[in-house]
Structures are given as structure tokens and as C-alpha cells.
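SEQUENCE AND FOLD
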Amino acid sequence: NEYVERYHYLGYKQPFGARQEYFIISGNGEKLGCILLAASAWALEARDKWIGWNEEERIKHLNLIVNNTRFLIFPWVKVKNLASHALSLVSKRVRQDWLLRYGYEPVLLETFVDIEKYLGTCYKAANWIYLGNTTGRGRMDTQNKKTLSQKQIYMYPLVKDFRKYLCSKGSMNNE
């Protein structure tokens, strides 16, 4: 949390709900960066249309989506392809880690990339799916003022049949 507060442009904010934190560590044990995962965005038009779920299904199964809230490669680290490699590694272990910690397995990862600062290259290289851009409203904008910069929306399916889990009327959290 201290690294994120010090080196991430958004700083550290206490995440909502379930969360998992990872250090990116080299073969010799050197810390290269960190990834923070937490509860997904409550409602996101592009994501919700892409999934194809209704409001009832979203409310019931939203916990099966995990948000990559912070991704940081430390400023002094220069390793080619490190970011996409780290994303690949975390996507392979997050389901099991979430199951051990929270008792269920997520089926999708989501993230937002600030288009004024980044190109989203590491997410593209790690095969995340680009869905479009946010409107710039943010979680706390109740008056539709759109005061934030737009973000690219990327999703990464953790299972092939993620829609079966998210759009089903019954719970399939541990199947």
C-alpha cells in the first residue's frame, strides 16, 4: 500500500469489498512492482452490455468480476514485457487465491486505463479485451458532471463460459 501511495499516480485508496494484493517479484527476490485487485465497478454500461446480463443478474453475480484497481511497475524497473507477463501470471492464480480467501472463484477481470496517461499496451499484449471508454463520470458522480478523464475499459475472461456464470438465474459460484 505504501508503494502504491508513493509511486502510483492515483495513490492508494482503501478498496471496497474483497481484495487481493500481489507483489511482482524477480527470480532473485527483488520487488519489481505490485498489482491490487478489488471489487468490480457497480455498473458499467459497456461491460454490462458485453456480458448481456440484466440488473437482477448483475446484482446477484457482480462479485464474480474482480477489478484490477492498481497496477504498478516501480519507476526504476526496466524489464521488457514485464507488465504483460505479470498480468498473465496474476490471471492464472487469482481464481484459486480468491477461492482460498473468500470461498468463491471470480470469472472475469476488469480494469480501466486512463487514456490521457497510458495506451493500454500491456493489457493488449496480455490479451485483455477492449470494450470502449468510460464517460468520465466515476463512482461518486451523482449529478452527471463527468469531471474525470475517460478510461479505456478492458476485460479478461478467467473461464471460457463466463456468461453462463454471470447470466444464470442460479448460483454457480463454486462449479
